[in-house]
User: Fold these one by one.
Assistant:
Number 1:
Amino acid sequence: MNNVINKFTKKQWAVFAVALVCACLFTATTVYAAGDVSTAITSTWNSAKSQIKTVVNNVVFPVVDTILAVLFFVKIGTAYFDYRKHGQFEFAAPAILFACLIFTLTAPLYIWGIVGM
């Protein structure tokens, strides 16, 4: 044990001491809120709920619908050219894109009932 202590230099002991002090200073302590946090969160959510719903209905769903529509028509085009080249029409990818497109087009009608808004 004495050999281990003697092998450390003063610089190494200083680094160890600084690291130990930093570890003691920056350890996590329990923080308590100075009021009713759940009421504040609930009131903030209730005031922002309608804005979130409006943005999702008017921005997010139309963007997703547009992307899916473009992908659907591109996939129909590539499937047609594959059909002309190989004589076999692949239905799986266009059918999946069409189902996703229908799902996202009708989602604003029922999604808010599922989410609870």
Note: Residues 36-115 form one domain.
Number 2:
Amino acid sequence: MTSSTPLSCENMLRQAAEQIGGDSPRLDAELLLNHVTGLSRTSFRAWPEREVTADQAAEFHALVSERAAGKPVAYLLGHQEFWSLPLLVSPSTLIPRPDTECLVEVALSLPVPAAARVLDLGTGTGAIALALASEQRDWQVTACDCVDEAVTLARRNAKELGLSVEVMQSSWFYGLTPGKFDLIVSNPPYIANTDHHLREGDVRFEPSSALVSGVDGLDDIRQIVEQAPDWLEPGGWLLMEHGFEQAGAVRSLLETRGFLAVESRKDYGDRDRMTLGRWAGRSEPSNQQTGERHAQ
């Protein structure tokens, strides 16, 4: 992309795609040019000869350079769609993934009361909580996160979308107002701290606190499984996303803790990506009830 190149959309997109590389370079380039110009991706194809201003070209080139260096498109745009909801994102939160929509689908299929009380642990952008609230307006949805910036962002997303979700700052259950829920959902950190994927692709730019959970990736899931019964109504559900190779371990944790109807469900790639269980027994007091704090 030199200064002598005509500033037509097609020329810019073609050269940007070459610079970006990766799995979807043309799509990335079109999203960035749409962001800069306000022109639709369809218009790029219908009128490829359309030119942009020098200022727009300069802004586009800067964004392309950042994308080529690996920065996620969602962070460059400042937003990401999830469950057809436009969500604001920032480097302080995990970028919502399409496969997490499978967790929303499973949550919506569970037998819970019409006015169910629902808790989303580690909400990040608020994606799961807001998706559930958009589908079930009678549900009382609470979301929490331990990161200040995430709490602020999730509240802003709820306000922008006009959805009634209470967002609280809490490290897992610590800091929540005592109460019981019919459904607890979570997409917690579940990557082992030695996993090579942490040094590859978009993940390099995302907050490690939303990704990493001990030597086997299960530290946070263990904590949630241990404490969740104290917060569940009899017959209430716990549903968590996890790594596709962790399903057996997560089922074992739930069964050992006393959950019933434990099973794993598939993501869009037909991999075991989430596991759920139903609480029907009495709970022994966990550490959160004695005042001990666990860092999320």
Note: Residues 9-69 form a domain with the Helicase, Ruva Protein; domain 3 fold (CATH 1.10.8.10).
Number 3:
Amino acid sequence: MRISEAASTSGLSIDTIRYYEKLDLLPKIARGSDGKRDFSAETVEWLILLSSLRETGMPMERMRYFAQLYQNQRGNETLSERKAILLDHAAHLEKRRTALDRCAEVLAYKLKRYDEMTEELS
């Protein structure tokens, strides 16, 4: 599939995909006879993962390291390390989710209090 389709499917912009390719975050992308990128389904799945990791705050350097582990030629030797990286990120997300839930409760309380104060003024 062409880069525009990969962008549409992954939710990333074409510029971001090119940037990720430049940073070696992507596996080698085949080129068609016309010289244009030809994205495989596996590469698009990888783009979706990268998008999710970035959206949830994984630093680019950590993403690069994860991509290097994935792309090395040692096969599944790095599987446990890659899994550890994702488990660590999942734990980070859970902490963040807890903090956001707490903030949402504070805001909900404050909004309720403002509604009560507005009614008292009426």
Note: The beta strands are 30-31, 37-38.
